[in-house]
Structure formats: structure tokens, C-alpha cells
Specification:
This protein is mainly α. The protein has 14 helices and no strands. 34% of the residues are buried.
Length: 426
């Protein structure tokens, strides 16, 4: 039999392995943040390119595509490094690798989209939707990284990062929808409803981002918010949402696009800061766990030395084989001094308490992720059974929540529970 302490050492080694894998995931999230930002910028200039005959948009679009391609190459290289030679070794790996496959499949549609947009073979609305689906696949990969993270501190920052990125994506879609409305000189009821949904959705995401952020990240966020042209954006939002019966001033198109773009660039700076915090937290946790492992290995070596003194024949036994023979194990344990025995008990108690605390903290963090899963699943049910779009499905959930005075996640949970009673899809 192996010694008690040997298994505690093995547990620490597992933690270090998991943390190192998590650090790779955090590096991937940082690369995804850059790629998403550049795809959002490419989507914006592609919309302007398709909406107006202006040579400057041709040049801007080409520059943005080149930058996005470089970021895409970086993401693909990082994804390759995540794939082990022997395949997945856990359920969480299987889930992550499935998301990676879906993200790569989405990225593979980019060349055709760029070619068709460049030849003006698709309109601005279609291009926006296709770019948004690609970005959505990247964000789903970030969500999966947060969902499988086993360290509470890192998990909190990943949840914060995901919500910031998701809120920024809603802000990017708002920029596109508003620019299209100003460029057209009017807004219809459907686009007005979509804009209202995007504004509310990004506010919810940013609220969740703040809830899970560190104090340092929040200070950085407040400083960046002070630089954002929020009053001007809010003024133009009111124009957009109150102009259903009248026209819109087309001259506001550039002003709207520029203000929204400035806000998105500053939000990306917050992402960069948060990604740095993620990397630092991973490094801190790995260093702390390695130090604890060294302490336990020292204790194991002392245990081995005292056991060998009790039985000189044990000196030839390898460290990992201590206690393999029952009688020698008894001699070793008999020779274990009170100080070492007390230290091992303390280690076991401390490790058990720490793991329980980690479990409790993770449960609290994942509650926010589970709520998102429920809402997304309920939206999917409404879309499948009633043949409505995502915006309409969300509107139904939101309106039901307001009418019943209940949280949207509770409405979603009830809908899922009654899924068998829903009418068949169209």
C-alpha cells in the first residue's frame, strides 16, 4: 500500500496539471478576445462598404481583414496546442473540444463570406448575421472555458470576461443596427424592437461582468467608462427609439458609428486588462500549489528517512514503493515521529477544507453560467416550436417575466419543465 502522504502529493500534482491546462485556456481566451474584436471591426466596415459606394471603405475593409486573419492564425495555433496526442482524458475536455470543433467550423466560413461581401453578392443585413454567427461561436468557446474551470478565482474572472465580451458583442450589433437605420433614414418596428433588446441584453451582461470582476478590474472599467461618449450614444439612442413615425437624419450615421466604435475600442481595453489579470491569477495559483507540493514532498522524504531507520532494509526501496510490503509499512509507521504524524493530519484537514471551500465557491460562480444555459435553452424551445427568431423568443421570455413579476431564469426553467406540452414545431 502507498502511504497517506504519497496520495496527498499525487493530489497536488493533479492540481498543478489542471492549473497548467487552465492557464492554456486563459491564453486562448485572450487570443479569442482579440480575434472577436477584429471581427467586430471587420463586420462594421463591411456594413459601411455594402451600404455606401465610398473608396475609403474599400481600403479600411482590406486593412481590417488582414488584421483579423493574423488574429485567426494565432487562435488556430493555440487551439492546436490544446489537443493532446492521446485525445481527451475527461468529460470537460470532450466538451471543450466539441466547442473548438464548432468554432473552427464557423471560422472556415469566413473566406466565402469575405469573397461574397467583396463582390456585393450579399447585403449588409445578411453579412451582419453571418459575422455574428461566427463571433457567437468564438464566445461559446469562451463560455465553455469558464464553465469547466475548476479553480474558483480563475473561474470568476473567466465568467467576468465572458460577460464583458458578450456585452461588447451586443454593443457591436447595436452599432450595426443603428448605423443601418440612420443610413436608411428610417427605422421600422422590428428594428426598433431589436435595438431595445440589444441595449437591455448588453446592460445585463455588463452588470454580471461587474459582479464577478476583481476590484482592480472594476477600477480600470470605471476609468474607461469615463472616457466613453456615453451621453452622446444615449442621445442618439433616444432619437432611434422615438422615430418610428418619422424620419432619421442620415447625417448622424457617421457620428453614431464613430461613437459606438470608440466605446467598443475602450471595452476591448478592459478585456485586455482582464485577460492580464487572468494570466496573473493562473501564475499565482500554480506557484502557490507548487510551493505546497514541495512542502509535502519534503515531509514525504522525512517520512521515508525515519521509516528506513526503523528498518535498514528499506533503504533500498524506492520512494514510490514505500509501504508496498505490509510488514515494512507497519515498521515505517511505527517509526513516524509525533511531529510528522501531526503534520500529515494537519495537511489532510487543511486540504479537505480547502477543497470544500473551492467547491462551494465554484457552485456560486457556476450558478450564473447555469442561468444563461437555461435561458438559451428556453429560447431554443420557443424558436423550434413557434418558428420565431431569437429576438422574438427573448422578447416573449422577457415580457412573461415582467407580467408575472418573476426572474427570467425562473420563467425559462418552467418552460423547459413543460417542454413536452409545447405544440410541435412548424
Amino acid at each position: 500500500m502507498k502511504s497517506t502522504l504519497a496520495f496527498l502529493v499525487a493530489a497536488r500534482r493533479c492540481e498543478i496539471r489542471d492549473l497548467e491546462h487552465l492557464a492554456l485556456n486563459c491564453d486562448l481566451v485572450q487570443a479569442l478576445s482579440r480575434l472577436v474584436h477584429l471581427l467586430q471591426r471587420e463586420r462594421g466596415t463591411t456594413n459601411l462598404f455594402l451600404a455606401a459606394v465610398d473608396p475609403r471603405f474599400d481600403t479600411q475593409r482590406a486593412e481590417h481583414i488582414a488584421a483579423a486573419r493574423c488574429a485567426e492564425d494565432d487562435v488556430r495555433a493555440r487551439l492546436d496546442r490544446l489537443l493532446p496526442d492521446t485525445g481527451a482524458d475527461s468529460c470537460s475536455d470532450a466538451r471543450l473540444f466539441t466547442r473548438i470543433a464548432m468554432a473552427l467550423d464557423a471560422l472556415n466560413t469566413l473566406p466565402a463570406l469575405r469573397q461574397q461581401a467583396g463582390a456585393r453578392q450579399c447585403g449588409a443585413v445578411e453579412a451582419t448575421q453571418r459575422y455574428s454567427r461566427i463571433v457567437g461561436a468564438m464566445l461559446a468557446l469562451v463560455f465553455e472555458s469558464a464553465d469547466i474551470a475548476a479553480d474558483p478565482a480563475v473561474s470568476r474572472l473567466l465568467v467576468s470576461m465572458f460577460n464583458l465580451m458578450q456585452g461588447k458583442e451586443f454593443a457591436g450589433q447595436e452599432r450595426a443596427a443603428g448605423a443601418a437605420a440612420f443610413a436608411a433614414g428610417r427605422i421600422d418596428a422590428g428594428r426598433e424592437q431589436s435595438l431595445a433588446h440589444l441595449i437591455e441584453a448588453q446592460e445585463q451582461c455588463l452588470h454580471c461582468f461587474e459582479d464577478f470582476s476583481s476590484e482592480n478590474a472594476l477600477r480600470q472599467w470605471r476609468a474607461l467608462q469615463a472616457l466613453m461618449p456615453l451621453p452622446e450614444i444615449e442621445r442618439m439612442r433616444r432619437i432611434l427609439l422615438s422615430s418610428l413615425a418619422g424620419g432619421l437624419d442620415r447625417r448622424l450615421t457617421d457620428a453614431w458609428f464613430d461613437c459606438c466604435s470608440q466605446r467598443l475600442d475602450l471595452m476591448h481595453r478592459a478585456e485586455i486588462h482582464l485577460a492580464t489579470s487572468l494570466r496573473d491569477e493562473c501564475a499565482r495559483r500554480i506557484a502557490a500549489t507548487r510551493a505546497e507540493l514541495e512542502d509535502q514532498q519534503s515531509l514525504l522524504a522525512a517520512f521515508s528517512a525515519e521509516g528506513a531507520q526503523a528498518d535498514p532494509g528499506m533503504r533500498s526501496v524506492a520512494l514510490d514503493d514505500i509501504g508496498d510490503q505490509h510488514q515494512r509499512r507497519g515498521a515505517a509507521e511505527a517509526a513516524l515521529g509525533p511531529r510528522l504524524s501531526r503534520s500529515i493530519v494537519d495537511i489532510m484537514q487543511a486540504q479537505s477544507l480547502r477543497l470544500q471551500q473551492m467547491s462551494d465557491e465554484l457552485a456560486a460562480v457556476r450558478a450564473a453560467l447555469d442561468e444563461r444555459k437555461l435561458v438559451e435553452r428556453a429560447k431554443g424551445l420557443l424558436m423550434a416550436h413557434h418558428g420565431v427568431g431569437e429576438d422574438e423568443a427573448y422578447r416573449v421570455l422577457r415580457q412573461t417575466s415582467m407580467n408575472q413579476g418573476r426572474r427570467m431564469v425562473d420563467v425559462a426553467r418552467n418552460l423547459i419543465d413543460m417542454a413536452n406540452l409545447l405544440p410541435p414545431g412548424p
